[in-house]
Structures are given as structure tokens and as C-alpha cells.
Recover the amino acids of this structure.
């Protein structure tokens, strides 16, 4: 951005450190983590962080929910891969689409969950705000406005910061083989009518962030490296000039990267999607298989759930504990590649299918991943068996035995991430009993109504950000069937 455009300047020179709730060191979502039968007392269930924003006042103006006025992020990033340091110039073009007059805008800063990773060097607000204060609160930046922002009003916020990813098995971190960049930048959280800003703290398991749809404009320049590196991104490369790479993504949840001197690339495409699969050299034979499988899954899920405006995905082998979905990029543990046999009966196949399904249930439509994780995880787990029904019908019984029955799952499907200390009980309740719950619904109302409800749930328009709640799910099923589903909900929900 042109520096002369900025009048009100606030320059701060301190790092955000994790003052309270830090993410667990293994970071985010584990789709199929190792069995852990240790039981623990139920942890305290936190409240959403809403009280600090109660000064919002409803406006006479109707809410503005036009995607054309969603948040836009502009990044100029210089990456020193060998030193594992990023210098970031980020501009957030924010339009107040809450429908309220707001005097406080929160920015979430996920990289600050780990101490020493995020170093903010400057924060500037466009001239339109004569009085603006910023306050660092834990892993948040609060921007306070006087006068407040009216509905439809737009501001631009410019941040300069450096990132120092840590060594380890994190999806924001590095090791000798790669650098992973997920949830690496300050972001505006979703705002919901009623609950307000969706700002959930990290839990011991699962994912807690929620992402409104936004546009991304990314310019990434690499400092000279000892070895050439390969960049995997959650959007296709729009342009390249020397060592600078430009990416554009419209109406996406987030923007993620993975960079390594070792990645081998395989590609597959159909008229629906282009898939780029990045593997380490020892697993290069599995790259094409992953890409082909994602293309096949995309076709199945388009048939079942309807169109997805996305048409691109990267699948990245990563030294992490499990799989992680982002919008347009899937991180998949190298362990799944190590353990893949030639058959479709392994976790490598299941996880590629599962993470591809997240491009519908997470990316295309979105939900509160902390308080209603079943809305994406139960549906993506059940999507696995739907894929097998369509493509390997002889393996459906195997799937139920291998994926579900073997774990004798118990627990409430609609539990939050805060109800668990360990992954296995979380997976069992939300993912596996979630699949059993969906099968019970299907058995009760029949295939035609069941798939009609899923289609309607996935394609339902009218909600800002394509956001979904349990009420939307129940509403979709009540539209297609008069059956009394109460006993099923009573059996599986708490
Ligand atoms: Zn998942």
C-alpha cells in the first residue's frame, strides 16, 4: 500500500505472546490419531468470548451480506526459506457487514498461540478513523473505533510483522524437509446474528477457528535458497516473475502453503477440479494415486452434495501427526503414505477421501468447529463410506468394521471439542458415532429423502458465509420427511 494513504498511524514493537490458552504442541485436528483409551475427567467447557463486544448496537439499516463486500486480504510476503523467517506486509480491507454499528473489531492472531512466532512491528489504520486504539489481548488484537463503524462502512488495516515458525510437527512450523504455513496470519473472525463474533479458544482436541469467506491476494517472494524449493499453495499459481509468486483466491476460508526442496509433483484433473499432489521422493509413486483419488472423490461428492465453486486442491505430504484440511490444501501425515498398501483398504485412501469431502463440509459450507464439530466431521467421515458405496461397494462392510466398529465408539455426537482431553474419545464420539447417527437417519427415512436432505443442507442458500448450524441440519431433514426423528436425536445427542 502507498504509505501516504495512511494518516492515523500506530506503530507498535512487541510480540504477541501466548498469555493464556495456548494450542497443544501437536496443533490442530487429528482425523485418525493413534488409539488412546485413557479416560479423563471432562474438562471445563468455556464460554465464547463475547462479553467484550456487547457495545454493539443494532442498526436501522438491514444487514449487508454481499460477498462482494467481504473481507479482502492483501499479502506481500518475503520468505527466507533457509532461515525460516517471513516478513509480511498485510492489508485487511474490511467492510462492516455485521448489520450493527461496531466500535470494536477483533482480529484473531493464530500464529501468536506459540510464543515467539509472531512479531508485530507496525499497525496502521486508514485516515477515515480519527480515533483508533489498538490493544493486544492475548492472542487477539482489538481495534477500537471512535466514531464507530457504521454498517457498510469500509476500513483498511495494514499490519507489518515477522513470523518465526518453530521447529516441530506443527502445521505452522518447519523441520529439515519442509515449512508448513497454516493459520499464519491475523484474520477477522465471523460475525453471527445473535452470538456476535465467533471467537473460540483452542481446546485440547480438534479445531477451534471459524473462517468467514474472504478474498486473498498473495505475492510471495523468495530470498535465494541453498536448494531450489517447491511451493504448494491452496490456490493455483496466477503468475510468476523470477522468485516471486502470485496467488489469487476468491471467497475462500483461508490461504495455506507448504514449501520444501524435496516435494515431487503429480497432477490430475477433470472438468470439475484440478489436483496437485506433493510427496516426498520416497513416496512419489503415491502422488499420482492421491491426485487421481481426489479427482474421483470430487466427482462422487459433486453427485451427492452438489456443485462446489472450488475447482482446485493441493494434497501435501507432511511431517505431522495426522491430516488437516484447509480451504484448497490438505496436509496429510507421511505416516499415511508409509502405511498405504496397494488396496483401497487403508487409511491413506480413507484420509484422501475424507479431506476431499471437507471441501464441501468446511470450505463450501462452514460451521462452528469448536462447538458443533460434528457438522463437518461426522459428515466427512460418513462421506468416506458414501465414496466406498459408489466406487467400491464390496468394501462397505469392511469400512464399517475397520473405521467404526473396531473402536466400539461411544459418546455424544454433538459434543464440543471442550468436552475432551484426548483425541480417541473425541474421534469416537463425534466422527464415528456421527457416522452411525447419519446411517440411523438414513435407515429411518430412506435413501431418497436422506440424500435429498444432504443435498439441500449443502446447497442451501441465504445464510451469510454459507454458515450452518445444527438447526439448519435438522431443518433440511424436516423438509424431506415427516418421520419422527426425535428418538434418533435422543440416542446420539446429549
Ligand atoms: Zn475431518
Amino acid at each position: 500500500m502507498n504509505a501516504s494513504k495512511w494518516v492515523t498511524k500506530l506503530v507498535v514493537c512487541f510480540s504477541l505472546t501466548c498469555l493464556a490458552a495456548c494450542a497443544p504442541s501437536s496443533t490442530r485436528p487429528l482425523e485418525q490419531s493413534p488409539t488412546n483409551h485413557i479416560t479423563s475427567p471432562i474438562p471445563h467447557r468455556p464460554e465464547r468470548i463475547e462479553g467484550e463486544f456487547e457495545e454493539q448496537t443494532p442498526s436501522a439499516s438491514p444487514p449487508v451480506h454481499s460477498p462482494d463486500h467481504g473481507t479482502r486480504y492483501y499479502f506481500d510476503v518475503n520468505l527466507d526459506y533457509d532461515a525460516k523467517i517471513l516478513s509480511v506486509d498485510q492489508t485487511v480491507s474490511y467492510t462492516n457487514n455485521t448489520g450493527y454499528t461496531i466500535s470494536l473489531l477483533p482480529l484473531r492472531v493464530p500464529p501468536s498461540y506459540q510464543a515467539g512466532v509472531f512479531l508485530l512491528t507496525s499497525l496502521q489504520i486508514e485516515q477515515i478513523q480519527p480515533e483508533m486504539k489498538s490493544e493486544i489481548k492475548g492472542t487477539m488484537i482489538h481495534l477500537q473505533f471512535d466514531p464507530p463503524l457504521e454498517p457498510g462502512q469500509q476500513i483498511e488495516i495494514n499490519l507489518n510483522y515477522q513470523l518465526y515458525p518453530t521447529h516441530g510437527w506443527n502445521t505452522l512450523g518447519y523441520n529439515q524437509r519442509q515449512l508448513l504455513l497454516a493459520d499464519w496470519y491475523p484474520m477477522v473472525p465471523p460475525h453471527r446474528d445473535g452470538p456476535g463474533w465467533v471467537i473460540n479458544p483452542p481446546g485440547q482436541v480438534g479445531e477451534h477457528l471459524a473462517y468467514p469467506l474472504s478474498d486473498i491476494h498473495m505475492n510471495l517472494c523468495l530470498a535465494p535458497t541453498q536448494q531450489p524449493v517447491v511451493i504448494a499453495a491452496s490456490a493455483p499459481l496466477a503468475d510468476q516473475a523470477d522468485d516471486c509468486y502470485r496467488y489469487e483466491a476468491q471467497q475462500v476460508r483461508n490461504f495455506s502453503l507448504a514449501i520444501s526442496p524435496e516435494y515431487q509433483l503429480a497432477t490430475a484433473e477433470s472438468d470439475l477440479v484440478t489436483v496437485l499432489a506433493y510427496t516426498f521422493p520416497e513416496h512419489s509413486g503415491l502422488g499420482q494415486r492421491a491426485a487421481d483419488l481426489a479427482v474421483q472423490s470430487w466427482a462422487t461428492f459433486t453427485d451427492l452434495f452438489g456443485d462446489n465453486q472450488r475447482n482446485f486442491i493441493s494434497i501435501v505430504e507432511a511431517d505431522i501427526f495426522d491430516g488437516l484440511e484447509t480451504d484448497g490444501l490438505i496436509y496429510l501425515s507421511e505416516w499415511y503414505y508409509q502405511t498405504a498398501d496397494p488396496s483401497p483398504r487403508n487409511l491413506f485412501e480413507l484420509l484422501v477421501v475424507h479431506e476431499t469431502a471437507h471441501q464441501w463440509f468446511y470450505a463450501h459450507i462452514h460451521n462452528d468447529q469448536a462447538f458443533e464439530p460434528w457438522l463437518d466431521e461426522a459428515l466427512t467421515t460418513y462421506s468416506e463410506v458414501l465414496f466406498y458405496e459408489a466406487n467400491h461397494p464390496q468394501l462397505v462392510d469392511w469400512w464399517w468394521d475397520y473405521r467404526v466398529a473396531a473402536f466400539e465408539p461411544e459418546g455424544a455426537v454433538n459434543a464440543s471439542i471442550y468436552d475432551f482431553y484426548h483425541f480417541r474419545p473425541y474421534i469416537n464420539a463425534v466422527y464415528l458415532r456421527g457416522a452411525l447417527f447419519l446411517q440411523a437417519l438414513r435407515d429411518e427415512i430412506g435413501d431418497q429423502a436422506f440424500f435429498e436432505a444432504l443435498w439441500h443442507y449443502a446447497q442451501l442458500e441465504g445464510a451469510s458465509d454459507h454458515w450452518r448450524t445444527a438447526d439448519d441440519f435438522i431443518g433440511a431433514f424436516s423438509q424431506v420427511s415427516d418421520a419422527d426423528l426425535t428418538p434418533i436425536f435422543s440416542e446420539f445427542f446429549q
User: Anything to note?
Assistant: The chain has a mean pLDDT of 87. The radius of gyration is 22 Å.
